[in-house]
Amino acid sequence: MEDGGVAVRRTTQGRPRSRAASVCKRSRDRTCSCSPPPRKKLSSGGDGEGPEGPEPEYIDSEDDLFGDYDSFSGNTSLLAEVDNIEQSCMQSTNVGRDCKKKDSETAVEPVYEDVQLQNTKNVAQTFSSAKTNYRTEQNNLKPQEDNILESLPSSQLLFLKTDECLAGPHKAENVEERVCHMNHCTDETSDLPYCHTIENNNQGSEPSTSGLPKSSKRKSLKDNLKNAMTVNARAPNSLTSKRHQLKHTVVSEEIGVIEKTAGSTFVDIGPFYGLPTKVKELLIQFRRIENLYDWQHACLTLESVQERKNLIYALPTSGGKTLVAEILILRELLCRQMDVLMILPYVAIVQEKVCGLSGFGMELGFLVEEYAGSKGRIPPIKRRLKKSLYIATIEKGHNLVNSLIETGRIGDLGLVVVDEVVAHAWRRKSWSYTRNDTCKDSLFKHISNFVYCIETTQIIGMSATLSNVKDLQQFLKAEYYTNNFRPVELKEYIKIQDSIYEVDSKAENGFTFSRLLEFKYSSRLQSTDPDHLIALVTEVIPKYSCLVFCPTKKNCENVAEMICKYLNRDYKKLKEKEKQDLIKDLTNICNGKLCPVLRRTIPFGIAYHHSGLTSDERKQIEEAYSSGTLCLLTCTSTLAAGVNLPARRVILRAPYVATEFLKKNQYKQMVGRAGRAGIDRAGESILIVQEKDKVLVRNLVHSPLESCYSNLLLEFNKGIRSLLLSLVGLKIATNPEQVYQFMCGTLFSIQQQLLPKEKSLWDVTVEVLQWLKQNGLLKESTNHGSEQNGQHNLEITQLGQATYKGSVDLAYCDMLYKDLKKGLEGLILESCLHLLYLTMPYDMISQCNPNWMIYLTQVSGLFEFSKEGILILLFVLSKGKEDILSAMLEWLEHFLVPIHLKYSCLSPGEQQVAVLVGVPESFITKKASGQAIKKDVDSSTVCRLYLALVLHALLKENNIWNVAEKFNISRGFIQTLLNSTASFSSSVLHFCEELSEFWVYKALLTELTKRLTYCVKAELIPLMEVAGVLEARAKQLYNSGYKTLAHLANANPEVLVKSIEHLSKGQARQIVSSAKMRLAEKAEALQEEVEELLRIPTDIP
User: Fold this and answer.
1) DSSP 8-state secondary structure symbol assigned to residue 610
2) pTM above 0.90, yes or no
3) Radius of gyration of the chain measured on its C-alpha atoms
4) Straight-line distance from the first to the last Cα atom of the chain, in angstroms, rounded to the nearest whole number
5) d(CA 654, CA 456)
6) CB-CB neighbours of 716 under 10 Å
7) In whole angstroms, what is the distance from residue 395 CA to residue 399 CA?
8) 820/998 Cα distance (integer angstroms)
9) Degrees, nearest 5: CA angle 496-498-504
10) What is the pLDDT of residues 166-175, one digit of tens each?
């Protein structure tokens, strides 16, 4: 039967099976009662080999339940068989216990790496097969009991299984044993209560049946058996054997649990929160995590988590939030066999996470794919055998989600994890390392798509700072979990003059006096260090670590130098060799050059950290700080929002970021870095406050966290327009009513009370749709069915399709189209300068402040001047002589000044680019000389060309230091410009793919994007594809013989450590794991392509 029930069956022909036939049957079939043999054909004869009988007749009459028997109690042979069963069961108690012991000793943990559980039915069959094998093992030990059971009617068999008066105490024990065996739950395999075992309540709680009088026992037995037969006789007749019925009954509860689990949660494949023990071993190996915090265990075992409901959880910084998310990610990948998307706020964190999880992917059999900057394939490759973990920034995650919806694969995504959900919502550009992280509206846009399009995708959001959680709960339909746990206690202080006060919410003015600074200041030192930074840092360094947050990048460098100037010279003697190695590494990274400030501060164990450094430099400094070579970093707020670098003491130089006063979320991010788990017993933060800011600071430290608002509301002219455009483009909504219905499910609709009173959500929706139509991004189409109803369907135009596919800002899409169209009129392909101009991000213009003299030397095609030559040139220009060459030759006759007769890097063809885009040389000449300009020139065009010249020089030289000196800009800005242009180039490529008129750009932009992504020599690109390998490390690997991805993937980490200078074992293991992961991705992609080519079409005529 499908429902697993047991029914009484009676045939209309033939005679009842006799006692002799039953004995004959038992003599041929010797098996155990605990595990029935494989199912046999039903027969009507006693020998078991005759033809199948006629169709069964279902009995619904209580008078004819027992066939040809006159009465149940009159059948003495049947009662005698029951007595024999009782005795046999009682005698088999010791045998059953031996079987249990044997099973627990010989249990083998399954291997999960290569096992792909396709669906729950397969799992159920696997468990059923395991159960059958387990019970078959006992068949050889107890044959007599099975022989007796074989001859009984099925309803009596069911009674014997469930009634404890017949089974004896050991029956319940065996049931408990089987349940624990099914779930792999023993005391030896887990130290956590993962298994909910069935307690044996019968032992010692019920009187033994053997102590009862025989007559009373017979009477109770007869009544119970007859009642059971009466109930079961009404059920439909089973067409299966009695052995199969008993087997199905024994495991029905376990299978039912599995089937229920598959529909709502996950398949339990191991003892570690549903994961195999190997995951726990990998956490110890890779993370050195042996035990989880109590809150982590409580969060992972929440009922809402088990039922796969959406969840938001918030804890202070350093509380261990990410580990919970990673365990949930592994459960989704391994147990439910679904893809996962993890969204992180910054490119640097994405790269760090890809590197950290690649080892897990290689060991557990899933892929880790990076979606940041220009990396990541859209749409992603559909994997057959392995599941993928996509780690993405907001912008790339938005593109990924759109592509999955468009290709109908959104159902493959089982889980979305959003780290620092509030940071995504309110952060500013100044907190970003690259432009890829400045798309604020994308996060809630694609989460809205999830909530609307598919309900089976689980969403997990986590944050250290969360205020209006009810709005987010309502928007995501999520549960909420919070805890104040910190592994290390945090004490917050403020410093006013030479007094330190502890932050105390119970105090009258919010602060309690703590102590006075004891450091003795001279008058000279007091004037140099009025904020007593030296006194504060020397209380903890060099024994402990310290972070000093400064308002600006320049202030970071000045503070680092100032502290070193007054430190004791004994600081230089500590870890002297390690510091010299760090200086050597930084020099190699910078092609033989090193920042003078770092050269002076590193010997004292101090360095600065901000976006003015390159990624290689920042990473090297971070590693040195983590290892203890550096004990103090002066840094900007980007460090608080980026990589995790904790410290014993955190000092906030001022309550400002640049010129803006701190927000509570920013403050919490910074002070949250204080205290290192497993190292410090306590962490402390000190905010330096001036008297004028005292009231503002009191409000800051005691105010609640800022609320999280929808960016559709905050960026009304940007976010909501691009959202509605993608809705129509993805065909999620095709008319204004459907668009409005979608909008009603967004966070924007929950917070629409913040809208002006004269506008409703419907008014906003109609207004935005009208704007999209006026700008040629949407159009109306009236079909026959909707025309009668007066309803106009919405369609996306080609320009709109290209805009949302390329994730191009709607404010610039029309400008981009015009620039690309104009470029086709005279595209100069002598070099990449013209393409660099076309792919220069429009939002970088505001950060460009051209140096006009440098600009002139680049576009004029004449000379690179010395300082004296520049002075002469300025004098010439001031005389109004635009013919620079003749003027210079004239003046050279009178002044023998070195002018470095070295021609500019620009060829005549490259100089023509400036003319084509609309930046004449005369304009730059007049700007350099300060003359009045009569003819207007588009300033954005001028800035874009200047930035294109910067990248053009970088691609030619591959030396960021030389380019930074030539253009007098910071190395960090050049790298930010490079990363932003690579990302925008990828967007422009997708934009052109949707417009057939721009077909010529496709191949050109593909190659340009690759060059911008890596910006190294071609031979280093394969090594740069590995997560965690930057240019300096790639050069080391290449020079040591590791020239391809295959070399790295098959490298021995121990040998790698010996071959590469200053490479730790942990870093070597991560590089090898990342290389293996990248190689596996490429191999999988090629295999998928081959199988797609060889697949036989289903629609062959």
Assistant:
1) S
2) no
3) 38
4) 43
5) 47
6) 15
7) 7
8) 8
9) 50
10) 344 444 444 3
